[in-house]
Write a structure and sequence with these properties.
The chain is of the alpha+beta class. The protein is built from 8 helices and 18 strands.
Length: 306
């Protein structure tokens, strides 16, 4: 298990793409495999977790974790990108708004909502990225997608700027949220700035900037990679050793009980961290019900074989 594997949490600055950050991390840590765990637009700042080594195999699971943001919406203008980097396409007066009225509107966005992806996004349409079509001056119909907002709160309102906190599920576009909030308030709105404070289970306390990394020796940088055993701790954990460890790492399921996983009950499709006797994260399991009613833990992603 000598390959560098884990997650490094970058404090992304404004003006750089998430892809460029991944390239820099690959060079700075001297690793072959790296990938971000949820993109941040160039304008956005804050928590950008980068998986390295075998941790990239778990990207999908990491990205299913909630994300938290603090952002400012400028009311009264709308751009084609829904953020301040775009071209203004509409201006509208901002009505008199009370704190109570704003909070009432924000409440409507809690829970499951439908969002239409912006044209300036990486979604594909007939093999092309939407932003490529947008740059060609084309607009295509996009299907609304159901997404989840866990929480949304008003932090401050200094007209025309509205500052909010939000905790969201996978696939939420904060730019689209800003636009939709503006419309609900009887005007238009554009995302003016955005900071991500949490993603994939990582927070601002764990961040390091690219500039700080450049000043360090390679060994120091590599020490900042959070090992997989310290990741996804909100998932139930199954400890295996000996023959059972071998059995799982060659792709076989094992019978489990809720008690073994420290839970009162289990759900079909639930993820499980599978650790060996040295607390190393060796596989990601998924819970399934057998025909005879027993719970089985199937290894979905094997990270290390015995």
């Amino acid at each position: 298990m000598d390959e560098l594997t884990g997650v490094i949490v970058v404090n992304k600055r404004e003006g750089i793409t998430s892809t460029k950050v991944v390239e820099r991390i690959r060079r700075l840590l001297k690793v072959k495999k790296a990938g971000h765990l949820g993109t941040l637009d160039p304008m956005a700042t804050g928590v950008l977790p980068i998986a390295v080594g075998r941790a990239t195999k778990l990207s999908e699971v990491f990205m299913e974790q909630p994300k938290e943001y603090v952002g400012r919406i400028k009311l009264g203008i709308l751009t084609d990108t829904y953020d301040r980097e775009g071209k203004v396409i509409e201006e509208k007066p901002v009505p008199e708004l009370t704190k109570e009225r704003i909070e009432e509107v924000l409440e409507k966005f809690k829970g499951d909502i439908w969002q239409i992806p912006p044209m300036y996004s990486a979604k594909r349409y007939k093999g092309k990225r939407l932003y490529q079509l947008a740059r060609e001056g084309k607009e295509v119909e996009r299907k609304p997608k159901k997404v989840h907002i866990y929480d949304i709160k008003l932090i401050d309102y200094q007209p025309p700027y509205l500052k909010i906190y939000t905790k969201v599920g996978k696939g939420v576009y904060i730019r689209t949220l800003a636009k939709d909030i503006g419309e609900e308030l009887g005007t238009v709105g554009t995302l003016w700035d955005l900071t991500r404070t949490s993603a994939a289970g990582f927070t601002t306390d764990q961040m390091v900037s690219l500039e700080e990394l450049k000043e360090m020796e390679l060994e120091e940088r590599r020490k900042l990679v959070i090992p997989l055993s310290e990741c996804l701790k909100e998932l139930p954990t199954l400890k295996v050793m000996g023959r059972l460890k071998w059995w799982i790492t060659v792709g076989n399921a094992v019978v489990v009980t809720p008690q073994e996983l420290g839970k009162e009950s289990l759900e079909e499709g639930e993820y499980v961290r599978i650790l060996n006797e040295d607390n190393e994260f060796i596989a990601l399991g998924v819970i399934k019900r057998s025909p005879d009613g027993r719970w089985l833990c199937h290894p979905q992603k094997v990270l290390y074989t015995s």
